Amino acid sequence: MPDQARSIVLAPPRGIGRSLLLTLPIALFTLLLFTPVLRQPGLPAKLAALIAWGFMLTLFFLMMRTRETYRWRRIFFITLAFMFPIGFIWDLIALRSSMSIPIEKMISGDTPFCFMVIPILLIPAALTKTLIFPGSILPTPSNPHSIAMMVALWLLATVVLGKAWCSYGCFFGGLDEGFSSVAKKARLRKINPQWRLVPWAILVAVVLLSAATYEPIYCMWLCPFKAVTEFPAVRSVQTGLQFGIFIALFLGLVVVLPYLTKRRTQCAFFCPFGAFQSIFSRTSIFDIRIDKEKCAAGCVLCQNHCPTLSIDKDSIQAGKTLSTCTRCGACVDVCRKDAAVWHIKGTPVGLSPERARLLYLYAAWVFASMFGGSIIANALQKLIGLLV
Amino acid sequence: MAIPNSFSFELFGAKKRNMYVLSRRRDRCERGVAERVNGVSSVAEALALGFGSGPVCLASCGPVLLPWLGAEPRELRATGRLLALFLGGRLAGYLAFAVVAWAVGAAIPVDPRTRTLVFGLANFGFAALFGISAFLPRRHCPLLPGEGTPRLYQIGSADRFRPPAALTLGFLTGLNLCPPFLAAGVRAAATRSLSGALLFFAVFFVGTAVWFLPSLAISPLRRFSVVPTVARMTMGALAIYYAYLGIVCAASWRLAPIRAGGLFIFITGMVSHA
Fold first, then answer.
1. A380 half-sphere exposure, CB direction, 13 A CA radius
2. Which of A26, A34, A320, A321 has the fewest other C-beta atoms within 10 Å?
3. Assembly ipTM
4. For residues A269 and A257, what is the distance between their CA atoms, to the nearest angstrom?
5. CA atoms of A333 and A320, how far apart (whole Å)
6. Which residues from chain A sit within 8 angstroms of residue B243, using beta carbons?
């Protein structure tokens, strides 16, 4: 799907000088972000920061030069998702000698906080002023992944980018995007659109059950990414069952189904955080509009190429994507008629869409470099440390 | 106190009798007032306890009630009737549990095996009801020639009432003890009579029921066509969860030793849970 998108882009590439000029603001800003890492002692840290900085700048330059978004963003996103477990597992093993988290560590609040838990926390916090996650609010030496830090980052990204968090911030989504890119053709093509409602059902179920039981039900039972991060130590039938569910969900939703469908199945058909983030889809000023007058008769390229099934015939008629749209840019890149365009709310549709894209990319890439870039640098540092 | 002389003894005796009668009257009066005050304070306490612990009650019953209300295609008034039936069933469950518990000589049954059995049956009940609602296909008209989607026709009243399901769900949530109910149970055990305990529970229930009123807000959400589908999917997920809980309870019931340190295990378990 993305390969096809690449081949049918009609817009001419931008000049190298102009592309460099457009990359300059990002270069200066991200230099500020990477400076603390560059100042860290030791060659691996400096080298990792330089490579990560260069990687982010190169991708942004290519976005400017080729006028494509999806292809280069996908490279960043997949790299982030494959690098995150490396750095995370490395830290876990350094701290605990194991990927499993024993109950004693949970009781002492040493469970690293993940943004997936945010919707689960809200109702118990509102009703009973209780945080039902065994983590720490502020960073500690034994648990640097604190609740306050992650919530602050999520708030920042949500206000500016809205649902685009799922394309630039989530450090898991790139895994199923990566596996969805492996096959050349989809083997499962017909997908009932009702499956798009499953994340909402999972969200409602886990939020209600977590409020009833005072336990983060999603993390305990349903998170596929526990298979590649951390999981409760298997010490009983229940924890064994949990571990089995994590593995089965990971293989099914993140590996096999994306490969068969060439869609981000975990994100589109399961992730409750994605559904929660869709609520904030309107907070961002950036969106994608479809001018149905420009659409060629019978053309549903954008619908066919959307990795999260966020475009259907009704939404094309309405001239916009569904609230589940992650602003990945696949539909814009694939459209031959320039009917799908980037748009800033409050401005006329189709008025300098490239300018809207640039503004969006500046916001998204600053966040991606700050959050994802540091994760990539961290993992690279560990890998380089092995060699040097 | 000075010793009275013989002259005044009779007078003193009369006075003493009168004083005794007066004292008895005053005691009775004070006792009556005290009982009334106790009764009023007990009612107020039950109401305050119910109102104070209402959010936890709502959180406990939310997984059962909210998807159910979301899946039922109803107007606000009909949703209100469903909610009332659910709450009525819940009250019946509470009172039934209280009566049975009282009959065995305690405010709460202390035998963990019996308790596990009741919890397990309640969880299987939830799983069965939710599973039926979520997974059983609904009848609809077949595709018409040339139509992309089936046209659905409602035959009969759109607001057809199905009270048994709401009552059953409410009754099962009443049996499925939650921490606030246990707090009320412990307090009600201190009352002298069964009627007093039942009154305490009933008033406590009224206090908690206030918190359920916001769930009526689901009714306007139904104007989004996806809400009933999402609610049914949620019930499907919850059916699996409750079936799992039921299996765990059944396994515990099969394995649990009869009356093994019942009271101690029960109290410590509930305190740690709360």
1. 22
2. A320
3. 0.87
4. 10
5. 15
6. none
Compare all CA atoms of chain B with the CA of A203 and give the residue at the minimum distance.
B234
**DSSP structure class, residue A101:** E
Q: Does residue A159 sit in the same domain as residue A177?
A: yes
Closest CA of chain B from A9, distance in Å: 33
- The predicted-structure confidence for B214-227, as pLDDT tens digits, reads as follows 998 888 887 788 89
Q: Kindly identify which residue of chain B lies nearest to residue A201, measuring between CA atoms.
A: B234
What's A291's domain CATH number?
3.30.70
Spacing of C-alpha B54 from chain mean position: 11
Indicate the pTM of the whole model.
0.83
Which residue range(s) make up the domain with A267? Answer: 99-281
* A92 plus A123 within the same structural domain: no
Q: Three-class SS of residue A272?
A: helix
Q: With an 8 Å Cβ cutoff, is A201 touching chain B?
A: yes
Closest alpha carbon within chain B to A193: B226
Let me know whether A113 and A223 are in one domain.
yes
C-alpha to C-alpha distance for A262 and A254, rounded to whole angstroms: 11
- Cβ distance A201 to B59 less than 8 Å, yes or no, reads no
Q: Are residues A123 and A163 in the same domain?
A: yes
Q: Which residues of A touch B214 (CB under 8 A)?
A: none
Same domain, A132 and A276: yes
Same domain, yes or no, for A64 and A157?
no
Q: What is the nearest CA distance from A122 to chain B, expressed in angstroms?
A: 12
Same domain, A248 and A228: yes
Scan residues 120-159 of A and list those with Cβ closer than 8 Å to B. 123-124, 127-128
Cβ separation B229–A123 shorter than 8 A: no
Cβ B123 vs Cβ B243: under 8 Å: yes
Give chain A's length.
Answer: 388
Give the pLDDT of chain A (388 residues) as one tens digit per residue: 444 444 444 568 899 999 999 999 999 999 988 888 788 888 899 999 999 999 999 999 999 999 999 999 999 999 999 999 999 999 888 877 888 887 777 788 778 888 999 999 988 888 778 888 888 888 887 777 788 988 999 999 999 999 999 999 999 999 999 999 999 999 998 899 999 999 999 999 999 999 988 889 999 899 999 999 888 888 888 888 999 999 999 999 999 999 999 999 999 999 999 999 999 988 899 999 999 889 888 888 999 999 999 999 999 999 999 999 999 999 999 998 889 999 999 999 878 899 999 999 999 999 999 999 999 999 999 999 888 7
> With contact defined as beta carbons under 8 Å apart, do B207 and B57 qualify?
no
- The answer to whether residues A115 and A206 belong to one domain is yes
Structural domain count, chain A: 3
